[in-house]
Amino acid sequence: MDACLFRAPLLAALVLTAAAAAAQPDEAATAPATRAPAAPSPADRAREISRIRGERGIDVCRLSADGTRKYQGITQGYERGQVQILVRVLDARTGEAVPGVRETNVWDDPANWSICAP
Q1: Contact 52/113 with Cβ under 8 angstroms?
Q2: Cα distance between residue 75 and residue 62, in whole Å
Q3: Residue 86's closest CA among 118, 61, 51?
Q4: Sign of CA dihedral 94, 99, 103, 107
Q5: For position 61, which CATH number holds?
Q6: 0.85 exceeded by the pTM?
Q7: Is residue 48 within 8 Å of residue 54, measured between CB atoms?
Q8: For residue 89, which of 99, 79, 98 has the smallest C-alpha distance?
Q9: 89-to-53, 97, 98, 104, 112 alpha-carbon distances in Å
Q10: Residue span of the structural domain in which 93 resides
Q11: What distances in angstroms separate CA 58 from CA 47, 73, 99, 114, 116, one per listed residue?
């Protein structure tokens, strides 16, 4: 009987140790697959917005609020604080055009857009 009482705490300690090890996430499993690009400095962002306002034909992009769509466009003009953009809608995951959605011209705040990465 004494041997059985001695083994119970040892067994409980082993079970708790194994459970704690299983509860801790594996670093490789929780690490992001790719790192997000660093946010531009405020000065760089101000230059980018100024360029969007001042140049026609710049490729600009933005994501939808839910992240499922990517809006890609070309700047057409700038007037009264708004930039005119010819926009097409793409699937954010595949990069292909969304069927049934045509290109359209929109007027929007240039701060809502970024210059597309080449």
Answers
A1: yes
A2: 13
A3: 61
A4: negative
A5: 2.30.30
A6: no
A7: no
A8: 98
A9: 21, 6, 6, 9, 15
A10: 42-115
A11: 14, 8, 24, 10, 8
Token pair 């101000």 is at which residue? 46
| DSSP string over 8-57 | HHHHHHHHHHHHHHHHSPPHHHHS-SSPPPPPPPHHHHHHHHHHHHH-TT
Using DSSP's 3-state secondary structure scheme, residue 5 falls into helix
Specify the number of domains making up the chain. Answer: 1
Q: What does the pLDDT profile of the chain (118 residues) look like in tens digits?
A: 555 444 444 434 433 334 444 444 544 444 445 555 677 888 999 999 999 999 999 999 999 999 999 999 999 999 999 999 999 999 999 999 999 999 999 999 999 999 998 7
Count of residues in the chain: 118
Q: How far is residue 53's CA from residue 48's CA, in Å, rounded to a whole number?
A: 9
CA–CA separation, 78 and 52 (whole Å)? 9
Residue position matching structure tokens 């701060």: 111
For residue 55, being part of any structural domain is answered with yes
